[in-house]
Amino acid sequence: MTKKTETITAPPRKRLFVTLMGVTCLIVVAVIFLAWWIPNRGLANIHPNLPHVVGIIMMVLSGIAILGTGLLVLTTALGKDLVLTRFMRLVVIKFLLPVIEFVGRVIGLDKDRIRQSFIAMNNSLVTSQRMKIKPDRILVLLPHCIQLSDCEIKVTGDIHKCVQCGRCSIKGLVDIGKKYSIDISVATGGTLARKVIVEKRPKLVLAVACERDLTSGIKDCYPLPVIGILNERPFGPCFNTFVDVNKIDEALHLVLDK
Ligand code: SF4
């Protein structure tokens, strides 16, 4: 794994998701075992061989759960598309995340920590597919709060209206847009973000937002791959936020077909 990939996928955050995934896998295997063990006697009354047949099915299901978790860990650790990475993204986004959020709630973990970890895991799976995409099929999507609140220029709709005074992150992002000829849009909310994606039909979205918006955006956009970059919020949520432009640059380096 390159240094750049490590920065974007943030391994320490990803580790939490991997740990919770392991715990979830153990719970699934325990539930499968109980589902076989409890009605075992009743099954034997129907047919003496039925407990063995059901036992084999349960063992296969447990094996799939353990192998799937192992493959996911290996894919993200190596940063390579080993096998079925797209399918694993589906499993992580649609099935594992709700279960892991539930497990995290039960053991009292902070929601945003789990979301950060999910975003890191998602980024890792997207970048491990090693896609190379033309600049005109990549969309960088920014939240409105990234613009300085007292700036009189409205960059929503056209980021190039920015006169690049440098008081907020928009300046650096305009530079990146020009450097790579990439489309950059500022969206004032989830509905507008979805509208922009439908209109521009990108092959990959690089989205900047908070934990909650990135998590819901990644879920809503599937199967469209989304790389999520967290914004910095020194003044609290949704007000004069920042983004490390270098992280955008690093992410683009991984997916751009130059
Ligand atoms: S860089 Fe300056 S001009 Fe551009 S959006 Fe930010 S504050 Fe406004």
Total of DSSP H or I helical runs spanning 4+ residues: 10
Q: What is the number of independent domains?
A: 2
Query: Helicity, in percent?
Result: 55-70%
Oligomeric form? single chain
- The share of residues in extended strands comes to 5-15%
Instruction: Please state the average pLDDT score.
Output: 87
- List the helices and strands in order: HHHHHHEHEHEHEH
Ligand list = iron/sulfur cluster
- Contiguous low-pLDDT stretches (5 residues minimum) are 1-7
Cα-to-Cα separation, first versus last residue = 20 Å
Assign the structural class, choosing from mainly alpha, mainly beta, alpha/beta, alpha+beta, or little secondary structure: alpha/beta
Based on Cα principal axes, name the global outline: elongated
Secondary structure tally: strands: 4
Rg, please? 22 Å
Physical arrangement of strands within the biggest beta sheet? 2-1-3-4
User: Major sheet: size, sense and barrel closure?
Assistant: 4 strands, parallel
